[in-house]
Structure formats: structure tokens, C-alpha cells
Specification:
281 residues; alpha/beta; Rossmann fold; seven-stranded mixed sheet; 9 helices; 13 strands; binds 2'-monophosphoadenosine-5'-diphosphate
């Protein structure tokens, strides 16, 4: 386990330790965002990025030494089995990206909250909305369950169709039937969500969708680096409303802070991450 610290120095008092674990992890913006939040709140806490290769081996150390962690690729699914308890949504999704350690280790999925809260800011009522989700990975799972919980109709498309079909089967058994597209076609949908990593830095010329985006659509991307993906640029050009991946990222972080017992300074967190991303431009 190697450490990259985002430290706040504290002359005295107990320091609570938090971290994001993943592999690779060195490009994560979570330490910058959370460290700024703790500093603004005047909280005695640190937030580091920990590169974890073998989660089962690192788990007991994390539980003993940290008050909470965020979890990212490739550990979001593996950690589920190690925890003492999970909130219902995390259990349903089968992925956890936020853990609160105490006498018991409790797992949450704040990606779901982040995505749905970002979406509802622009489309307050998702009931009966027709949503096309691109992707069939961990992020797509959280978003699809979130949309279904809000009463939306979901269709999915994934580059590897077999994975989309397997996910649709699982979701159909657990919750509600969803359609699978064999070719991505956003026509007729109210909302399009890219839950793939297509278009993420450094492959900024990639896009998960090449065919036309209707002007009356809302298009959301989970990719936040770059701030405006090729997909969002095309959507804007077509006259559609867009939601950047930054919103989901900031809001999943804010929800993690709430779970750990803090009141998140959301605007500041958004500002800090935006500034950091602008440095890459
Ligand atoms: P995450 O947990 O972030 O969702 P993941 O589980 O590895 O990560 O899933 C990545 C998703 O992005 C998958 O749906 C993947 O499609 P495949 O199942 O076909 O691999 C999708 N994806 C990644 N790169 C892509 C690209 N260039 N074009 C389209 N889809 C892509």
C-alpha cells in the first residue's frame, strides 16, 4: 500500500483519518476536494489517496485506522463481501463507494445519490421519463438502479452487448424489466446518460455515441475530465441541455461527507475540483 497524502496539519486534538482507495489512484481528485472541505469546516481530519492492490489484505488495517473511506476501481464490488452492513441500495447495486468505520463497517453507494441528485437539478421529476443509459459497468449499475427507484423507464446500450443483456436480466429479476439496444439510438428518449469511460482524458476524441442527439434532450456524462467531453460538446451544439460529470463527482463526495457526519461545503468543493481540472487544460 503506497500513500499520497492530502494532509491538514493539526496542532492538537484527535485527527480523524479518511482516504480513497483504488488502483490506480494517483489521479484521483478526491483528496484535494475533501481536504479543502475539512479545512473549510475546521474539522480535525485528513484525507489521503491509498493505492491498494490486495483489498482483503488491507481491509483490517483500514478498518482499524480510518474513520471512513471512499472506494473506487477496482474495489467497489469486492468490498461488499467484507463489510458488516450495507444500506439497501448498495446491496441491490452490488457496489459500495463509501464506507463508515465504527464498531461495524457500513457500506453505502453515494454514486447513486450523486448521479440522481445532479440529474434532478435539471429534471426534477424522473417518473415515467424515458432514459437511455450507455454502459454496463459499475457506474451504469448505480445510475440504472437510481433511475428505476425514481420511477423512470430505462433502456441500456453497451459496446459489449452480451454484458448489457446480462445486466438487464439481473435488473429484471431484482427490480424491473429494462430494454437493451443493439445500436445506440437516442431518438425518442428524454434523457441520455453516458455511464462509460469513453471520452475520458487522455482519449478525449472518443465518444460513446456518434448518431444525432435530439435538441429536446438532457444529456449527462459521468466523465468529468475533461469538464466538457466530446459528447457534451456535440449535445450542446445540437441544442440539448447538458450536465457535466463534475456534478456527479462533487455530489457523491458531498454525500460521503454527510454519511461521515459533516455538513459539506458543496460550492467550495465544486470550485476546488474545477480549478484542479482547469490546470489540465
Ligand atoms: P465503471 O465501474 O466506471 O463503470 P467498468 O465496470 O470497467 O467501469 O465499466 C466501463 C464501461 O465503459 C463498460 O460499459 C465499457 O464497455 P464494455 O463493457 O464494452 O467494455 C464502457 N467503455 C469503456 N470504454 C469505452 C469506449 N471507448 N466506448 C464505449 N464504451 C466504453
Amino acid at each position: 500500500m503506497t500513500k499520497k497524502a492530502g494532509m491538514v496539519t493539526h496542532p492538537d486534538g484527535e485527527v480523524k483519518k479518511y482516504a480513497v482507495i483504488g488502483n490506480p489512484i494517483k489521479h484521483s481528485l478526491s483528496p484535494v476536494m475533501h481536504t479543502a472541505a475539512f479545512r473549510a469546516l475546521g474539522v480535525n481530519a485528513t484525507y489521503e489517496a491509498l493505492e491498494v492492490e490486495n483489498l482483503s489484505r488491507a481491509y483490517d488495517y483500514l478498518k482499524e485506522n480510518y474513520a471512513g473511506i471512499n472506494v473506487t476501481i477496482p474495489h467497489k464490488e469486492t468490498i461488499v463481501e467484507l463489510l458488516d452492513e450495507k444500506e439497501m441500495a448498495a446491496d441491490l447495486i452490488g457496489a459500495v463507494n463509501c464506507v463508515k468505520f465504527g464498531r461495524k463497517a457500513m457500506g453505502f453507494n453515494t454514486d447513486l445519490h450523486g448521479a440522481i441528485s445532479a440529474l434532478k437539478d435539471v429534471v426534477p421529476h424522473l417518473r415515467e421519463k424515458n432514459i437511455l443509459v450507455l454502459g454496463a459497468g459499475g457506474a451504469a449499475r448505480a445510475i440504472i438502479f437510481g433511475c428505476l427507484m425514481e420511477g423512470a423507464n430505462v433502456t441500456i446500450y453497451n459496446r459489449t452487448v452480451r454484458k448489457a443483456e446480462a445486466l438487464a436480466k439481473e435488473i429484471g429479476e431484482k427490480m424491473k424489466d429494462i430494454e437493451v439496444q443493439r445500436r445506440p439510438d437516442p431518438v425518442g428518449f428524454d434523457i441520455l446518460i453516458n455511464a462509460t469511460s469513453a471520452g475520458m482524458y487522455p482519449k478525449v476524441d472518443e465518444t460513446p455515441l456518434t448518431s444525432g442527439i435530439p435538441s429536446n434532450m438532457v444529456v449527462m456524462d459521468i466523465v468529468y475530465n475533461p469538464l466538457e467531453t466530446r459528447l457534451l460538446r456535440k449535445a450542446k451544439e445540437a441544442g440539448a441541455r447538458t450536465i457535466s460529470g463534475l456534478e456527479m463527482f462533487v455530489r457523491q463526495g458531498a454525500e460521503s461527507l454527510r454519511i461521515w457526519g459533516y455538513d459539506p461545503p458543496v460550492s467550495l468543493m465544486r470550485e476546488v475540483v474545477t480549478k484542479e481540472l482547469m490546470k489540465n487544460d
